[in-house]
Amino acid sequence: LETTGCAFDPAGLDDFEADMDAQIEGAENFVEHLVGGKTNLRSVPQVAHLLFDVLGLRPPDRRLGRSTAIEVLLALRTKHPIVPALLDHRAATKIKTTYCAKLRANARAFGGRIMTVYNNTLVETGRLSSGSKRRLGALSINVQQIPKTKSLGAPLRRHFVASPGCVLCVADLSQAQLRIAAVDSGDEAMIRAFHSGEDYHAQTAKDIFGDAKYR
Question: Counting runs of H as helices and runs of E as strands, what totals does the chain give?
């Protein structure tokens, strides 16, 4: 994948990008209608002022201060109808700026194929990551973080296609690291859990807490 890349079909990407523009504009208009004035939803200080001063909301944890991080918005999404609009705006903006433009530019630069760099030893957890600004500059893209949601991720993922005469295979290495740990350690409980076909984390929660709900 690193040396050959993946074929990319840009057909329809412009329409999807237009949908993202509409979602961004819709969120901005919705917020403006509710508060009676314009707010730059890309500005952290303005969004913080909107949430904590205008709407009087409070972060789920005082230690977070006036943070507008995604976890804060998710925790506040049921507190006011503006918050879901902020989440929609942020998601659409990220898709448009991080993926639509970069995928198009990357494919154009590499003859219709998406090229990235796969990092084997960069992440402390040992997981694979992708992207390298040092090697690809502005064309660098993390293809492993494209969302999976039906509304945002799926329309992007369908542009990754098989080359003529080929097919795409999907392989899910489910809990690969834990399975390796089970074999290497010889832990009977781990091996038994995997052989049972049950969700491993649910089984671990049962073993430790007596209830799978703590997975």
Answer: 10, 4
Q: What is the DSSP letter of 122?
A: S
In whole angstroms, give the CA distance from residue 106 to residue 119. Answer: 18
DSSP string, 15-71: HHHHHHHHHHHHHHHHHHHHHTS---TT-HHHHHIIIIIIS----SSGGGTT---HH
What is the distance between the terminal CA atoms of the chain, rounded to a whole angstrom? 34
pLDDT per residue as tens digits for the range 9-18 = 999 999 999 9
The letter for the amino acid at 1 is L
- Single-letter amino acid, residue 183: V
- Collapsed DSSP state (helix, strand, coil) of residue 167: coil
Tens of pLDDT, residue by residue over 28-66, are 999 999 988 889 999 999 999 999 999 999 887 777 788
